[in-house]
Amino acid sequence: MAVGEAVFPRMSVLDGLRLGTAEAAIKKPGRRDLVVVELPENTAVAGVFTRNAFCAAPVHVARDHLARSAVRYLLINTGNANAGTGEQGMKDAEYCCGALASLVGCAGEAVLPFSTGVIGEPLPVARIEAALPRALESLDDSSEAWQRAGEGILTTDTRPKGATATCQIGGQTVTINGISKGSGMIQPNMATMLGFVVTDAAIESDLLSSLLRETTQVSFNSITVDSDTSTNDACLLMATGRSAQVSSPKEVAAFRAALEEVMVTLAQAVIRDAEGATKFVTLQVEQARTVQEARDVAFTVAHSPLVKTALYASDANWGRILAAVGRAPVDDFDVNAVTIDLGAVRLVEHGGRAADYTEEAGSREMAREDITIRILLGRGESAATVWTSDLSHEYVSINADYRS
Amino acid sequence: MAVGEAVFPRMSVLDGLRLGTAEAAIKKPGRRDLVVVELPENTAVAGVFTRNAFCAAPVHVARDHLARSAVRYLLINTGNANAGTGEQGMKDAEYCCGALASLVGCAGEAVLPFSTGVIGEPLPVARIEAALPRALESLDDSSEAWQRAGEGILTTDTRPKGATATCQIGGQTVTINGISKGSGMIQPNMATMLGFVVTDAAIESDLLSSLLRETTQVSFNSITVDSDTSTNDACLLMATGRSAQVSSPKEVAAFRAALEEVMVTLAQAVIRDAEGATKFVTLQVEQARTVQEARDVAFTVAHSPLVKTALYASDANWGRILAAVGRAPVDDFDVNAVTIDLGAVRLVEHGGRAADYTEEAGSREMAREDITIRILLGRGESAATVWTSDLSHEYVSINADYRS
């Protein structure tokens, strides 16, 4: 299941950047499950990684390589997360990096590994190694290569996720292309399951890193399917430097806006393709004392199984939204100041049901695929937006059957 | 659905305490939905109530009456929570207390009101008022009256929940009887949905209150079905004073042990009857730095939809348990020190799968109805136990259909 239609966008070529894929039969045969991304020399790379304490072996290795070396290749597999695999998992991730490095003639630490899939199974390194030559043969810079790479990183996702944007910097067109994956075990904490965003702009490394962190916060760190932060979350922002330099405040602002558009589109695509999703839900919390408070309220509502099942049923059960808001971790909470709107319909005011609310109006809004719940706390000036999905029978089926 | 068999226990008579029920057609006709409990004079009463900021009108009124007056009657309805009902809800709750008071000849504030059911609908006061005489006529002190009262407070619960225990105090037998209800919207915070526990012991009011708070923490505050703290949670502990006085440290210890047995049994009964439950799951977290840390880890695992769906599927998907432990809010978390057992089988040690783990052994444990997950954090001496249920198709069905 997935919400709405999604067309993989037409991606512009980024000079020097190529993507290759192969079928390595990592979990099962007959699907694209191995992706190699080749970066041009001198590409600046910034990364954010999961804060799950049980983070996966490739996360450890990618973080380490990124700190020590320039990056030339990304090696991404699906079907196996190489997480909960202890020391052997670390060796396996290093081994795969080394195998790719020896085929292309670079240092092993110039390769960053990423894995996604089932947790706790040994990584099938022999199958990955055997498929590497085919992935390298297919390296290509076309839009089709981006789409194949987008497909090659999926797990329970039903469709590839891509986004692209351009902006004008110093008279030159700068392009930003990105792909992401993720459908379940989604409450990213500093990253999504996997996101890879590349620009041809030239961006100094500290600036690149802060741009990634800022836009991650309002995109991948603002989505949740099921509150389960993955062991393998990672998001990279890469700048090849073949186009204009981004450095003045005005240039940074223009670039940031385009980057945020790409990041938010990719994050929303994860929610639209969430496991079992039939609804795409925007939670806008306003008039909070702090952004963190607004986020806390939004995530409390977004994680409520009772709100999520009501959304699935298209039932305007506003009492459940009110109950979830009421249990959010907010100090000195005056519920009489709270207002809750469902789309264009006011649900709650003065601590109870809005005076002119009707069940018909509520049901009409709830029947939509795209639903916005706006919660005004009446106690400050801060706001936050979080996106989530509903909780359906299909979500339970997918996750009760995933390993079988 | 519910886990295992449950027999309502044989309750001893508590001198002077009577329970009555009636069919008031509050939500729909043909079911017992109104309960009156009559307490003997001079009964000491302690209460804990929901911390949900949007707490229901009866919670406000019960808290207020309890602070101002001796208590003679409890008036409990199901089918309507009288929550999210603003000023009118407060008036309605007071009105019902007054109606009962005028029939029995006591002050309105000697009545404590409790409601459970759908949020946001006006309380049908006329129907409650009309049914009060029938509830009073049925007042009785028998075990059957306790069971009828247990039935009269249910919502989506499939069976009444009772517990009883005795202890010897100063050569006299002291009895503790209790009933509870709750099946969904369960992560009590200072109380369960509704719990009523009565003893014939004589207990001074401050001691009664601290006994209630202490035993609530390890019973109703240690269960979760779906992380949704209700607007109507309340738990009362009442001491009629007709039997022995509990005051010396030794007497308090004996009484506390019996009380904890009743409270834990009632709390566990809520989980065994959780919405859609097919499993009863005990999460034992040990070797934590603080009890709060142990509780945080236990609740993080207990709330994980991916762990809960794996439990439903009887799938020993230990990677999901590991991932949930890893995202718990624990500082300086060294995952290499963590050990996780599923029943008698070691799942995780040294940051990965236990050396002698086999899928067969894991699946055998996971197939049971009663499952214990033991998580040793390896960083301290504190422990906590939390009980939860699984996440099934039936849970989604119940909550997608609840209002229809």
From TrEMBL, chains A, B:
The active site is at residue 192. Substrate binds at residues 155, 181, 192, 275, 399, 404. Keywords: Acyltransferase, Amino-acid biosynthesis, Arginine biosynthesis, Autocatalytic cleavage, Cytoplasm, Multifunctional enzyme, Transferase. Its EC number is 2.3.1.35, 2.3.1.1. The record marks 191-192 as: Cleavage. The record marks 116-117 as: Involved in the stabilization of negative charge on the oxyanion by the formation of the oxyanion hole. It comes from the Bacteria. It is found in: Cytoplasm. It catalyses: L-glutamate + acetyl-CoA = N-acetyl-L-glutamate + CoA + H(+); N(2)-acetyl-L-ornithine + L-glutamate = N-acetyl-L-glutamate + L-ornithine. GO terms for molecular function: L-glutamate N-acetyltransferase activity, acting on acetyl-L-ornithine as donor. Pathway: Amino-acid biosynthesis; L-arginine biosynthesis; N(2)-acetyl-L-ornithine from L-glutamate: step 1/4; Amino-acid biosynthesis; L-arginine biosynthesis; L-ornithine and N-acetyl-L-glutamate from L-glutamate and N(2)-acetyl-L-ornithine (cyclic): step 1/1. InterPro entries: Arg_biosynth_ArgJ, ArgJ-like_dom_sf, ArgJ_beta_C. It is an enzyme of class 2 (transferase). Its main location: cytoplasm. The keyword Chloroplast does not apply. Pfam families: ArgJ. Catalyzes two activities which are involved in the cyclic version of arginine biosynthesis: the synthesis of N-acetylglutamate from glutamate and acetyl-CoA as the acetyl donor, and of ornithine by transacetylation between N(2)-acetylornithine and glutamate. NCBIfam families: ArgJ (TIGR00120), PRK05388.1 (NF003802). Belongs to the ArgJ family. Heterotetramer of two alpha and two beta chains. This is Arginine biosynthesis bifunctional protein ArgJ. It comes from Modicisalibacter tunisiensis.
